[in-house]
From TrEMBL:
<keyword id="KW-0677">Repeat</keyword>
<dbReference type="GO" id="GO:0016558">
    <property type="term" value="P:protein import into peroxisome matrix"/>
</dbReference>
<keyword id="KW-0853">WD repeat</keyword>
<feature type="repeat" description="WD">
    <location>
        <begin position="144"/>
        <end position="186"/>
    </location>
</feature>
<dbReference type="InterPro" id="IPR019775">
    <property type="entry name" value="WD40_repeat_CS"/>
</dbReference>
<dbReference type="Pfam" id="PF00400">
    <property type="entry name" value="WD40"/>
</dbReference>
<feature type="repeat" description="WD">
    <location>
        <begin position="99"/>
        <end position="142"/>
    </location>
</feature>
<dbReference type="GO" id="GO:0005829">
    <property type="term" value="C:cytosol"/>
</dbReference>
<dbReference type="InterPro" id="IPR020472">
    <property type="entry name" value="WD40_PAC1"/>
</dbReference>
<keyword id="KW-0813">Transport</keyword>
<dbReference type="GO" id="GO:0005782">
    <property type="term" value="C:peroxisomal matrix"/>
</dbReference>
<feature type="repeat" description="WD">
    <location>
        <begin position="187"/>
        <end position="222"/>
    </location>
</feature>
<dbReference type="InterPro" id="IPR036322">
    <property type="entry name" value="WD40_repeat_dom_sf"/>
</dbReference>
<comment type="similarity">
    <text>Belongs to the WD repeat peroxin-7 family.</text>
</comment>
<keyword id="KW-0576">Peroxisome</keyword>
<dbReference type="InterPro" id="IPR015943">
    <property type="entry name" value="WD40/YVTN_repeat-like_dom_sf"/>
</dbReference>
<dbReference type="InterPro" id="IPR001680">
    <property type="entry name" value="WD40_rpt"/>
</dbReference>
């Protein structure tokens, strides 16, 4: 085994997403859904060492994001097409705001990591990406079109303000440059639905995608017609991929095969461990401590892990 489990948190329902806080050491936000998100309530749990804060919601929640400019706020994406803004230091269990602009489920929410771009994006099963500024009116200031099906994930570039990458059930990878009003597309980045992506934290031109063809593809955005590298090894669809924020050459992936895989961009070595027999939807690296990551699965367990080799 290339890692050890430091701690485990048992959930009441299946984990759909989790995120480490960019503000507070070891603070982790977890979203879990009743009946695997098909119908019923959901829960947001914030854990930090032995402390825990819980919010309940009447509909499914599929994703969560910390607000980069305010450590007391988080955003969630909801099954009814709304986004919810939550105050962490408020004992009231209701959100500060609940805003519905999408026509179907919100699959991804991501607050820009660039300090020059204080903006949220949300993606939906309605095929759109919406950009939000909570200091403006209306709060949705742009809707990005182009995808022909569910937009599973989109991510702001960590350094280039205004650049967004998105992936969809329509098999395409798109790059939106908000400042230049440009839209670059690879209409067939994978032969199947693309479920996830992530930007390199060190190389401005690299991003990775994962799909239902069980493969990861590494792209140079200066020429997205062909992947640089194709990574094979998963036995089912890849649901989450994350570049290591502390190492240039390492990334992690999880999926419907219940496996955690660590990949090295400079070698063919793959470290694999079967975590459970269920789908793994939650994956994130600890932003403050090296070699530590969190994994959340449909077996209702969140595992905090430390890599001990590789």
């Amino acid at each position: 085994m290339f890692f050890r489990i430091i701690a485990q948190t048992r959930l009441t329902d299946a984990c759909y997403s989790l995120r480490y806080s960019p503000h507070i050491l070891n603070q982790l936000a977890i979203v879990s859904c009743e009946n695997f998100g098909i119908r019923g309530r959901s829960t947001i749990q914030l854990i930090n060492n032995h402390d825990q804060l819980i919010f309940n919601w009447s509909d499914a929640l599929f994703d969560i994001s910390f607000v980069e400019t305010d450590p007391s706020l988080i955003i969630s994406g909801c099954g009814d097409g709304s986004i919810n803004l939550w105050q962490l230091n408020n004992t009231n269990s209701l959100p500060l705001l609940s805003l519905r602009e999408h026509q179907r489920e919100v699959w991804c929410v991501h607050w820009s990591e660039s300090r020059s771009n204080d903006t949220l994006l949300s993606t939906s099963a309605d095929g759109t990406i919406k950009l939000w500024n909570f200091n403006s009116s209306p709060m949705v200031y742009k809707t990005l079109l182009g995808h022909e099906s569910v937009v599973y994930e989109a991510r702001w570039h960590p350094r280039q303000s205004g650049l967004i990458a998105s992936v969809s059930a329509d098999c395409s990878l798109r790059l939106f440059d908000i400042k230049q009003s440009s839209n670059i597309v690879n209409p067939r980045a994978h032969p199947t639905e693309i479920l996830c992506l992530d930007w390199s934290k060190y190389d401005d031109h690299l991003l990775i995608t994962g799909a239902c063809d069980n493969r990861l593809r590494l792209w140079d955005i200066r020429m997205i017609t062909n992947a640089i590298t194709i990574f094979e090894g998963h036995e089912a669809a890849i649901r989450r991929i994350k570049f290591d924020p502390h190492r240039r050459d390492r990334l992690a992936s999880t999926g419907y095969d219940g496996q955690l895989k660590l990949w090295n961009l400079n070698s063919t070595n793959i470290h694999t461990e079967r975590i459970c027999k269920d789908f793994i939807y939650g994956l994130d690296w600890n932003l403050f401590e090296q070699d530590k990551l969190a994994i959340g699965a449909w077996d209702r367990i969140v595992r905090l892990c430390e890599i001990i080799s590789m």
